[in-house]
Amino acid sequence: MIVNGVEIGTGHRPYVVAEMSGNHNGSLDTALRLVDAVAAAGAHAIKLQTYTADTMTVDVPDERFRVSTGHDLWSGEYLYQLFQRAHTPWEWHEAIFERARAHGITAFSSPFDATAVELLEKLDAPLYKIASSEITDLPLIRLAASTGKPVIISTGMASVAEIGAAVDAARGAGCTELVVLSCTASYPAPPQETNLRRIPVLAETFGVPVGLSDHTLGIGVPIASVAFGACLIEKHVTLDRGDGGVDSAFSLEPHEVTALVTESERAWQALGTTRIGPTEAERESLRFRRSLYVVADVRAGDTLTGANVRSIRPTGGLAPDAIGAVLGRTFRHDAAKGTPLTWELI
What we know:
two-stranded antiparallel sheet, TIM Barrel, SAF, alpha/beta, Type Iii Antifreeze Protein Isoform Hplc 12, N-acylneuraminate-9-phosphate synthase activity, 32% helix, N-acetylneuraminate synthase
């Protein structure tokens, strides 16, 4: 998958996506400052969510439409009011996309219905992300895929069969560039339920590049995901975790996004190969292994003792394990302190 000239997939540095979600707190100025901060942090992309409360649900005071009491972030809140508070107004999208383009980063979004896809097509969105809760909305997946743009599908809560149906729907509608994201759809997500070992399983099962949509605290989990082959990392971002934003409590602040970009690339570079043995970078260090040296001036006929021969750095003399074979023997020649011990000297 190539997005704005950046290749996403196996063999390439992790592609870092900063999810704005509702952390603009109802302010376009804050949304634009988030774009500025994400760009300065080195992320590849900023992602929005394109919906309204009315495209997501209905305003009904029924328990079925209410978040369970005791939820870490949205306890007892009705879905309609939550989506009202968290949505990104559609009239903001163009300004946000333009700000991202000015910085040279990608702006894209998760559409939640056909009208959202229509809006994003008008803005020339370069790709689409299907949110975890929408993975069973196969008509939406087919619509996004039919645009010919790359598609990212998040798999939180999904079974293997549901992921397979979503991948088939995207491919059947013409999608040729597809990334699947391992995800735990809990906010925040417990690290012990992130199950990073499923990343290579997803890649092998569905024949696609796999990334991570992560809702744990901090950057430890996404950095670890790189070792399992994650090619894309998505994390929520906020200007200030203490500002009361809808997702701020489990979001990264800008300086943490910088660390994520830096450390995920470092982790990817460290994967290397399966070769065992000294590397080019270790060539100088090889010289400073221990070997046997003359450590005091000696004359021909002197006995080799622990006082005049020791294992020291660097290399050049006999191997340290030869000490038992040389002690008690005599020197054949004079030797100055700092002379490598060789069989010719004994």
